TrEMBL record:
Record-linked Pfam families: Methyltransf_23
Assigned keywords, A-Z: Methyltransferase, Transferase
Designated name of the protein: Class I SAM-dependent methyltransferase
Enzyme Commission number(s) from the entry: 2.1.1.222, 2.1.1.64
Gene Ontology BP annotations: methylation
Signal sequence annotation: none
Amino acid sequence: MHTGEQYHHVMLASRRDRAVRDRFQKMALDLLPAGADVLDLGAGTGIDAKAYAARGHRTFVHEPSQAMRDYLAHHCRDEIAGKTIVPITSPLACKVQAVTANFAVLNHFADHAALFEVLSRVVGRGGFVLASMLNPFYLGDARHRWWRANILNLVRRGRYAIDSESRIHRFAPRVVAQSATPYFRLERLTPRGFGRATQLYMFLLFRRV
């Protein structure tokens, strides 16, 4: 996938990804107070942002990829014109009740402590950060050599990085929760139980303290 448009259509065409997105959006919208502002961190092409704006939430969008930003500007052009979606160049450019980070945005960060410190200046007390992250316990990845090679790293350190161009990191939830302290506490984690082995993504809800 080389362009934002290609990524956009691939995501919408994937039944599995649509199901994950639907669950994530429902969780976010159920948590958001009426009319609350939200920051979509790593907004991609604006699929989630458009859904939040349609429900009356002014949505700030931060996306580092130029290709994604270009297609977001097309996909959300009416909302941007109406200022219900507001592109920003830094998370610190807004103050919101909630931050959402869907589809493994946090897996691109090696240092979550620094990220949560920044987000503590963005989210008001009582607000939340909702993130979907790659599930390091997902058995569907056991067919890959990199997964098997890092089992001990996951058990011992709770984290590892895959040696690839994108340097995607995998984290156990406890490691992310520790990084969020003292600004946020982990309030909810899904899935639990057997779902840990069968679902590619886990959802983590952090509450601002």
